[in-house]
Design goal:
Belongs to the amino acid-polyamine-organocation (APC) superfamily. Amino acid transporter (AAT) (TC 2.A.3.1) family. It comes from Luteococcus japonicus LSP_Lj1. One of its GO terms (biological process) is transmembrane transport. It is a multi-pass membrane protein. The protein is built from 20 helices and no strands. By secondary structure, the chain is an all-alpha fold. The chain has a single domain, classed as Amino acid/polyamine transporter I (Up-down Bundle). Helix 6 packs across helix 7 and helix 16 packs across helix 20. The two termini are about 20 Å apart. The relative contact order is 0.20.
């Protein structure tokens, strides 16, 4: 499908309605915090069970794929820094339906992620208040985070900055204390554990290459959220400086945190015992004589869940704003309040996410895994759209202008094809994991629904 030469309602490159109030520190921590959540604190046990110590390689490979996706997005974001980046770039460089699909699919992706995070918030609150139903806690945080997003983008940035600081501090503490146990025997009677657990229980590849391959499904889900950098471009005070810096640094930092934390876990515990005595984070702190380890961890994971929902609501409001300005969503969703927040888009996204509260009331304990699998397939659609759109972007610019780009995706177009092949492989692998299989039914149905909606939209116009 050829790209339209004149979009009917183009997005202003400078997004004058939105407020450019996000500093580089906000953007760095927004992306870092968005990708560090329950996937690391609890989900890592599942991936370790699949691959054993070889999971370290899976995170390195997954990180390389995500880095290339982020560079593809960064190339377009630096050239044209707008809010709702994915949808606008797909519309402008690829065509009407890709722009429509990309925007609405990203919104759908983060609705699923937000629902999942709201569902688990209730279980964390019950740690302190077991008599409070999970759905009540979910409802309280739904209202609180919605209010934060309606104030101003600066308020969102500050809250997300400090949410991320708490998570990052916890991970750094775990890595440092864990290394102290490994090297010096801190809290272990002076008996250093060393690193022999990496190979002493069936070798480094105890489940074979197949186990490593299957674990890539969980690993890629863990990295979801770094693409928030593209959404922030429309509200960054200096996007051509801060976006490249954020992309280059955040992927490296995420890899350090994930690989570092899991390396410590695998050195301290046999891979087939990780998580069996409770959270590895709790165990490490307990060994050091920190009796309140469980409370500390619960504060961190609650913060991680609220942070993920905060980021999801922010991005969804901006995506609906961008879709409205393209003419791909009702115009009312493009309205801004005096603080520059797309308040109608935020409230609409919050209202849909509130379904999680209802589902948590009706089906407690059964919602989380299904919603997570749907979020992953939608995330894969997003990443594939970014990589293909970047190829279309280069075609539109031409070789001369591409050579003058200040921030480029390395090794394109071959790196694009490699990323697409990896994403397709992950979709195939999802069919072999029961908890993720439901997404293979929801994904095609969602594509068909969007195709129908786009067709009806064109007819009504």
């Amino acid at each position: 499908m050829s790209a339209p030469s004149q979009p009917p309602s183009p997005v202003d490159t400078h997004d004058r309605g939105l407020q450019r109030s996000l500093k580089n520190r906000h953007i760095q921590l927004i992306a870092l915090g968005g990708a560090i959540g329950t996937g690391l604190f609890y989900g890592s046990s599942a991936s370790i069970t699949m691959a054993g110590p070889a999971i370290l390689l899976a995170y390195l490979l997954g990180g390389a794929v995500i880095f290339l996706i982020m560079r593809a997005l960064g190339e377009m974001s630096v050239h044209t820094p707008v809010s709702g980046a994915f949808s606008h770039y797909a519309y402008e460089n690829w065509g009407s339906f890709p722009g429509f699909f990309s925007g609405w699919n990203y919104w759908f992706n983060y609705i699923a992620v937000s629902m999942a995070e709201l569902v688990v918030v209730g279980s964390y609150v019950q740690f302190w208040f077991p008599g409070v139903p999970e759905w009540v806690s979910s409802a309280v945080f739904l209202v609180l985070v919605t209010a934060i997003n309606l104030v101003s983008v600066r308020a969102f940035g500050e809250f997300e900055f400090w949410f991320a600081i708490i998570k990052v501090t916890a991970i750094v503490a775990m890595i440092l204390f864990g290394l102290g146990i490994i090297c010096f025997g801190w809290g272990n009677g002076g008996d250093a554990t060393g690193i022999s657990n990496l190979w002493a229980h069936g070798g480094f590849f105890p489940t074979g290459i197949s186990g490593l391959t299957m674990a890539m499904v969980v690993v890629l889900f863990s990295f979801g959220g770094v693409e928030l950098i593209g959404i922030t471009a429309g509200e960054a005070d200096d996007p051509r400086r801060s976006i490249p810096k954020a992309i280059n640094q955040v992927v490296t930092r995420i890899l350090i945190f994930y690989v570092g934390a899991i390396f410590v876990m695998l050195c301290l515990f046999p891979w087939n015992q990780v998580g069996k005595e409770g959270s590895p984070f709790v165990t490490i702190f307990s060994k050091l004589g920190i009796g309140s380890a469980a409370t500390i961890l619960n504060v961190v994971v609650l913060t991680a869940a609220v942070s993920a929902y905060n980021s999801g609501l922010y991005s969804n409001g901006r995506m609906l704003y961008s879709l409205a300005r393209q003419g791909n969503a009702p115009a009312v969703l493009g309205r801004l309040n005096k603080a520059g927040s797309p308040w109608v888009g935020v409230l609409a996204s919050s209202a849909v996410t509130a379904l999680a509260v209802l589902l948590n009331f009706l089906l407690p304990g059964k919602v989380f895994l299904y919603v997570i699998s749907v979020a992953l397939i939608a995330g894969i659609f997003n990443w594939a759209m970014i990589v293909v759109t970047q190829l279309k972007f280069r075609e539109r610019l031409g070789a001369d202008e591409v050579s003058r780009l200040g921030f480029r995706m390395p090794w394109s177009p071959w790196s694009n094809y490699l990323v697409l092949a990896c994403l397709a492989g992950v979709v195939v692998l999802m069919a072999f994991i029961p908890d993720y299989r439901v997404a293979l039914y929801v994904g095609p149905a969602w594509i068909a629904l969007l195709a129908l909606a786009h067709s009806l939209r064109r007819r009504t116009r």
